Amino acid sequence: MIEVWAIGGYTDIGKNMTAVRYNNEVVIFDIGVFVDKLISYEGDAWSLHPNKLLHIGALPDDTAMRKEWGKYVKAIVCTHAHLDHLGGITKIAHHYNTAPIIGTPYTIEVLRNQERDQRGHLDNKLVKMSPGNTFKISSDISVEFIYATHSTLQTIIAALHTPEGTVLYANDWKFDDNPTYGQKTDYARLKKLGSTGVTALISDSTRIDHFGRTFSEGLQAEMLKDLLLNLKHEHKLIVLTTFASHCVRISNMIKIAKKMGRIPIIFGRSMKNYLDASTRAKLISFKDVPILSFGDEIEAAFKMIEKQGREKFVLIMTGNQGETDAMLTRMARNELGLKLEKNDVVVFCSEAIPVPVCQANRQTVEKMIRDAGVHLFVDIHVSGHASREDQLDLLRMVKAKHYIPTHGTLPKLASAVELATGEGYKLGETVHLLQDGQRVKIE
Ligand SMILES: [Zn+2]
């Protein structure tokens, strides 16, 4: 008998955490934070005690699961380096300190950054496993990492193999056939699993309400190239912003800057964290580009830019969500040594996350930028999440007996259920609409 306990990410888009039990062995998939709650908290939310973080809704509530299943937890699997999948590990994993934390080399490097920055300490053994490999958890169960594409490096779809079948945990993913770096999703492996029988598929429904397919990262790179290589007006300083965890996109930005004959410089602490992790994991190396995060080095760079001429540079910085303390926002507020001026160019390679605090922050910073006479371009972006047609392709590829949508609000989960019923799944029997805290037995 396999049982799935939905702990977090089944009511909100964030704080993902799922526990899967086979006999007396439990594997936890992802322990994330609800980033929006951290952003809207006044003060340094990361320094809060886990109980307080739980109280403000920033952490998944694993209390009941821990009481009942805690002693059976044999492994914690982290699918990728985004905070809504990894950010809660340093706050919760110590409750399961005999369980190893298994992730790809990049994910583990980002987790080490988290440990350092939150001054936390993990007693759990950290296991680095590259996509394509399998880790034997016990004589009965093992976890396999399947190549998947998303919007951060080395994302995987996890397959938990048990004597009673395989549970596929696909949270988050997209089908990208031109990812510009790294391998495509391993379609052959997914189809093979589909032909031998998948007991359950747990899949993210973040973007299920978007009809059609999610476009490739290759297209985003082309859009940005098309924009920047064909600017018709006089352009001085160029400032680009995107998610700090999107190393592939940042590497493409660097290539485009060089193609323009400009010097790329990267600013911001979270950029440094994610990009250094990529260099350490021996993936994309950012060693030859300055990544500045300290006040004095930023100040010196700004002076140098003014002296050499702002038209010679492309700055890549944090602030894609208009976060109040990010570099771009502070620059727009004229708090830094370098001001945005007429004929500068600012490009947002991101969409505002559809929650009120992010949307309001983005509007505010965009207005400040426009008011300074800057050429502003927004939404030069493709999503990292599967759209409806991609979800349908995955459903048909793996032919799971049971389907459990996750990583969504109730309307999104309901939309996934509707998609599945169209494929012959039956609500409550083979497609399960779980909310945080609920569980289901499957066989
Ligand atoms: Zn993600």
What does this structure look like?
The chain has 2 domains: 271 residues, Metallo-beta-lactamase, Chain A, CATH 3.60.15; 161 residues, Metallo-hydrolase/oxidoreductase (Rossmann fold, 3-Layer(aba) Sandwich), CATH 3.40.50.10710. Helix 6 crosses helix 10 and helix 8 packs parallel to helix 9. The chain is 33% helix and 20% strand. It is built from 15 helices and 19 strands. By secondary structure, the protein is α/β, with parallel strands linked by helices. The strands form 3 sheets. It has a 7-stranded mixed sheet with strand order 6-5-4-3-2-1-19. The chain has a 6-stranded mixed sheet with strand order 7-8-9-10-11-18. The model has no long low-confidence stretch (mean pLDDT 96). The site of zinc ion has 5 residues, from loops.
What are the main properties of this structure?
six-stranded mixed sheet; Rossmann fold; 443 residues; binds zinc ion; Metallo-beta-lactamase, Chain A; 15 helices; 2 domains; seven-stranded mixed sheet; alpha/beta
